[in-house]
Amino acid sequence: MILNETSYFGAGCREAIATEAARRGFKKAFFVTDKDLIRFHVADKVIEVFEKAGIPYEIYNDVKANPTIANVQHGVTAFKASGADFIVALGGGSSIDTAKGIGIVVNNPDFADVRSLEGVANTRHKAVPTFALPTTAGTAAEVTINYVIIDEAATKKMVCVDPNDIPSVAIVDPELMYSMPKGLTAATGMDALTHAIESYITPGAWVMSDMFELKAIEMIAKHLKAAVDNGSDPVAREAMSQAQYIAGMGFSNVGLGIVHSMAHPLGAHYDTPHGVANALLLPYVMEYNAESPAAPKYMDIAKAMGVDTTDMSEAEGVKAAVEAVRKLSLSIGIPQKLHEIGVKEGDLHQLAIDAFNDVCTGGNPRPTSVEEIEALYHKAF
Ligand SMILES: NC(=O)c1ccc[n+]([C@@H]2O[C@H](COP(=O)([O-])OP(=O)(O)OC[C@H]3O[C@@H](n4cnc5c(N)ncnc54)[C@H](O)[C@@H]3O)[C@@H](O)[C@H]2O)c1
Ligand SMILES: [Fe+2]
What we know:
The chain is of the alpha/beta class. It has helices at about 15-25, 35-40, 40-55, 70-80, 95-105, 180-200, 205-230, 235-255, 260-270, 275-290, 300-305, 315-330, 350-355, 370-380, and strands spanning about 5-10, 30, 55-60, 85-90, 120, 130-135, 145-150, 155-160, 170. It has a six-stranded parallel sheet, sandwiched between helices. It is globular and about 60 Å long.
């Protein structure tokens, strides 16, 4: 298991930036975030901590949602010019993933092209020490060994898997998530549910990852709708901040499946938000993956989603799990068909090729093919 060195949870825990920086002897922060987080004053909540503790910082906000190789490379140049000795990453998966890419390339300059980091890269040095503060309750990028960067020239989302990139400190403060609009809360929450379900049924799952994923499913089923309906509900926001992290502890160590493989090309081709792509595809792929050795585990998923599974057969358990996921997704306004989100039918063949070649395909419980993935895209179209 690879996890953070230290992690903090709960309202206001962002103050730990100051104590952790002092404890580790860090002098200057390179603060990676994006422009919307500055606009919504979320970045101010971290800047206040820097100011109060007298920690010098330099802001880098050239990060777009679904970040690109250029975002990482410009960040490397800015980091080197800044004189900083640690990174503070604030944001959703996009800012944290960009920070991971920057931290890796700074300490492993052989990979300055970024492209060569795709898949499992053999970097030899740990990334620049990073404190990661999530502002969405979804990707768990603060505790995973993955980061996802777009290669625009190849219209491709590259999944990079590298234990050297894990943030040393995760600071999971639900107060940084209150400003998420409803649509973002819904989509990122469904991303977390997708992580939990895919990694619960992946062949590499084991007792410890199962423990994390079932608890995450239960918490998301219980709290996601409340977080969407009332963004300032402290109980729901706190539970979602923890649930997405718990799901990340599991999936980062055992892998995902083809919901993610199929979501990544949608991000690369249409800039579809990651959570929306996952949420839309999840029930279709769950139906498909029920024909695999993972079928008996669907009953547990249904139960964790709050369904009374007493006396259900395995087939009824499968149906109940898929229905519970679809019901949650509908209740929080997730689009249910690809044509509704601007996907073009003529692109489905190319999307299927890209999805099949994605790093996450190896974790799918049912062996698959380009043809079968294409059929799934058509079903979801
Ligand atoms: N590293 C991993 O393990 C991992 C896992 C899953 C997904 N990802 C990647 O993460 C990216 C998606 O990240 P995401 O879904 O967290 O969203 P995001 O980081 O792309 O953010 C989407 C938008 O929401 C805004 N936003 C974020 N938090 C906000 C807040 N509290 N209030 C107001 N606005 C806010 C951002 O500024 C941005 O404009 C994708 O590139 C995806 O592929 C990474
Ligand atoms: Fe994801």
